[in-house]
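Make up an example, fold above all:
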Amino acid sequence: MRFGKKTAFAALVAVSALALAGCGGGDVVEEAPEGGAPADDGEMYIALVSKGFQHQFWQAVKTGAEQKAEELGVRVTFEGPAAETEIAQQLDMLTTAINSSPDAIGYAALDPEACVAPLEQAKSKDIPVVYFDAPCNGDVGLSLAATDSIAAGALAAEHMAELIGGEGEVAIVGHSQINSTGVERRDGFVEKMKADYPDIKIVDIQYGDGDHLKSADIAKTMIAAYPNLKGIYGTNEGSAIGVVNAVKELGLEKGKLTIIGFDSGAAQIEAIKDGTMAGAITQDPIGIGARTVESAVAAANGEELEEFYDTGSYWYDATNMDDEKIAAVLYE
């Protein structure tokens, strides 16, 4: 399948096809009973395999999926690795899901290449596949429910530029240079800076796998290496909190370094409220989960789907967190 309806989304696939490899897994969050799918009682069964469950984002996706499943009268299972680096474990979960012969599969690719072969098995069994958050390469998937991550990265760049006065040095702590969300959130930020803010220099980009400790160590190294650094952008929840923790451990004055994050969660919301973080980009994970189940049910019923459902991205900070529209997409 080609996802070509939106320019940003086409960029996502192009980047994935050229630069990515491997697919991930780990600890089961919620699994079907031993032996595969739940007992066949005539109820439609959808198997969902996510990138992980380490961050509150995935818990919110799971909530949205379960709510939509209850509304539609279908059964879902939701699995994911303990960390978004556990590719082999995620592939094991995907294979188990395929062997359980569900009515449809929802899949979020940690690595867009390693998942091609197992999803071809799903295709050979006539199990429809829809993607959420990030697609797999190949032509198996019928649809993707996700944030336009190029646009979201650009939105982060716009706010960083405004907050640091349109000039100076900034850095990025990324969560992945393999899966598409990490690549696109980075590239959207970098491309926007190059295009519109020539007086801002991105001096360093490093990757902490979304791990708080790794990301904190990276941030501390950046701060030491670049004494004129004005800002750091963390591309997911773990990356951003790592940067926040680094600033706290170094005893820096709040606001001295402009920190922009991605996703939501209690720790980021608290860091914004107390002034350590300037703001962040949030997605709509509940909407992603709900749309994925809706698409999976439609696919199982042989209905036509859109190639890409953009579930949106939003800037939030201390000034707008209580606004109705923003509060609806924040998760703690």
